[in-house]
């Protein structure tokens, strides 16, 4: 049985890179299946995502950019798969949170998104304002 | 200002357009010309969610785009016009007579097409359509992102673009 719980799709090597980072930190990179949109039309991306969802049974897709073709494709797939959750703008903190969550994957995705938002911070730099 | 780019891209609104071109050109509006999208609220909502809130998106049929083109070209802000295929751009160029340039930004693999560039696959008929666009006065170039060199249609069709 597949261990894959979510797909990660994005530009260039974004997905493969962030999955490799998850694996380096946790040893659990097999939770994700990575996919790139490189060289693909919008229809190709949607077809590949749909096939991957069917093959893995995953109910969560992480994507990199709101306007990206992977996000657009995932949104299209939600039309015929209303239970599918799409997390847009994923970062490593969100993915790590998802890896360790147990139980329902969609609930885990919601929690992971919140953790990812919290992790995005600016530390230091010149003082602003006043 | 006005329309800075007239682009054929089968992904329509996506990362290269919104960020790759949108940031350096300071794009404030996008004109998406597609008869199917122009008649579908669902499709429009899908594309609209992909752009920053400060960026306007106009969804036009080809007929509407022909009617509105002068207004878009005179806009004080920078904009990008998109079509998803060559046919649509040809109809717009022919009917309006006022599209100065055509950017080939992404036409991907499909049966019957030959790869010309990493992001550009063309059938014989499509190549003839592009030549006709050039003959009609539009400067046709291929360039996926601003940092790449714009390749002339001759370079694309002769294979020089891959060297």
The level-1 CATH class of chain B: Alpha Beta
Radius of gyration of chain B, whole Å: 15 Å
Beta content of chain B comes to 25-35%
Number of strands of chain B: 9
Biggest sheet of chain A, open or closed, and with what strands and sense? 4 strands, parallel
Structural class label of chain B = alpha/beta
Task: Tell me the number of helical segments of chain A per DSSP (H or I, 4 or more residues long).
Answer: 5
> Please, what is the CATH homologous superfamily of chain B?
Phosphotransferase system, sorbose subfamily IIB component
Instruction: Tell me the CATH superfamily of chain A.
Output: Phosphotransferase system, mannose-type IIA component
Which blocks of ≥5 consecutive residues of chain B have pLDDT under 50? none
Quote the average pLDDT of chain A. 94
Q: What class, by secondary structure content of chain A?
A: alpha/beta
Q: Which range does the strand content of chain A fall in?
A: 5-15%
Q: Can you name the CATH architecture of chain B?
A: 3-Layer(aba) Sandwich
Average pLDDT figure of chain B: 95
Tell me roughly what share of residues is in helical segments of chain B: 25-40%
- Classified by CATH, the class of chain A is Alpha Beta
Residue share in helices of chain A? 40-55%
Main sheet specs of chain B: 7 strands, mixed
CATH-defined topology of chain B: Fructose Permease
Globular, elongated, flat, extended or rod-shaped: what is the shape of chain B? globular
């Amino acid at each position: 049985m597949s261990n894959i719980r979510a797909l990660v799709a994005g530009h260039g090597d974004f997905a493969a890179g962030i999955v490799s980072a998850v694996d380096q930190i946790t040893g659990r990179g097999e939770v994700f299946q990575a996919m790139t949109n490189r060289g693909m039309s919008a229809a190709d991306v949607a077809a590949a995502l749909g096939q991957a969802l069917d093959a893995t049974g995953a109910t969560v897709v992480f994507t990199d950019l709101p306007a990206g073709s992977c996000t657009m494709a995932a949104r299209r797939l939600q039309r015929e798969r209303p239970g599918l959750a799409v997390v847009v703008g994923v970062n490593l903190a969100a993915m790590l949170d998802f890896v360790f969550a147990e139980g329902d994957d969609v609930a885990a995705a919601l929690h992971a998104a919140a953790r990812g938002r919290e992790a995005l911070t600016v530390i230091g730099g010149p003082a602003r304002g006043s | 200002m006005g329309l800075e780019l007239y682009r054929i891209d089968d992904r329509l609104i996506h990362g290269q357009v919104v960020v790759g071109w949108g940031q350096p050109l300071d794009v404030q509006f996008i004109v998406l010309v597609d008869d199917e999208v122009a008649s579908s609220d669902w499709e429009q909502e899908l594309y609209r969610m992909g752009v920053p809130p400060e960026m306007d998106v106009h969804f036009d049929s080809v007929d509407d785009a022909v009617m509105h083109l002068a207004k878009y070209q005179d806009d004080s802000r920078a904009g990008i016009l998109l079509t998803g295929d060559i046919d649509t751009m040809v109809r717009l160029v022919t009917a309006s007579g006022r599209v100065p340039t055509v950017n080939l930004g992404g036409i991907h693999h499909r049966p019957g097409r030959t790869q010309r560039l990493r992001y550009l696959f063309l059938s014989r008929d499509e190549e003839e359509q592009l030549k006709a666009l050039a003959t009609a006065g539009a400067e046709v170039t291929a360039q996926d992102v601003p940092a790449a060199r714009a390749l002339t249609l001759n370079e694309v069709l002769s294979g020089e673009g891959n060297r």
